[in-house]
């Protein structure tokens, strides 16, 4: 085995372990680096009505996940009341949670309902979710109590 192969294998193992550690018992959908919402600013949905990528220069940590912000003002708003801005179901797909699964939420497929940010997996899923938002939220809320601490892959078995 070459040094390069050994090195790359070590990196792959480290990423796998970090991903497992983050997923186990943690309700936030964050990458292996701990980045939440793929770097999108959670406050911008509420203040600007759109999905905006944040900056790696403007960050804060909440529940072991790192959030990026598009402005100092948004960062300050988040730090003052993070629960007002974090997406439902830790940023996992709202429709998936209603079905009892944890799929990545796409920050570009979103909707604010009763001052709560919801993300969905894709445009097709978002279109399906909006056909019965109250019903899907009710199902997801019930399911979330059971699936919150589970790793996404465990729910697919």
TrEMBL record:
Signal peptide feature range: 1-23
UniProt entry keywords in alphabetical sequence: Signal
Name of this protein: YHS domain-containing (Seleno)protein
Species assigned in the record: Tritonibacter scottomollicae
């Amino acid at each position: 085995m070459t040094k390069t192969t050994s090195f790359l294998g070590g990196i792959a193992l480290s990423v796998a372990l970090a991903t497992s550690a983050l997923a186990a018992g943690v309700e936030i959908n964050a990458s292996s680096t701990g980045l939440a919402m793929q770097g999108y600013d959670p406050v911008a949905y509420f203040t600007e009505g759109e999905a905006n990528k944040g900056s790696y220069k403007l960050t804060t940590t909440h529940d072991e996940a790192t959030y990026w912000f598009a402005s100092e003002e948004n960062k300050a708003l988040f730090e003052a009341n993070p629960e007002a801005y974090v997406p439902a179901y830790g940023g996992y797909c709202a429709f998936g949670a209603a079905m009892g699964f944890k799929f990545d939420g796409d920050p570009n497929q979103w909707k604010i309902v009763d001052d709560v940010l919801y993300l969905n997996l894709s445009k097709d899923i978002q279109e399906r979710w909006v056909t019965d938002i109250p019903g899907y939220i009710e199902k997801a809320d019930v399911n979330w109590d059971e699936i919150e601490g589970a790793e996404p892959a465990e729910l697919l078995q």
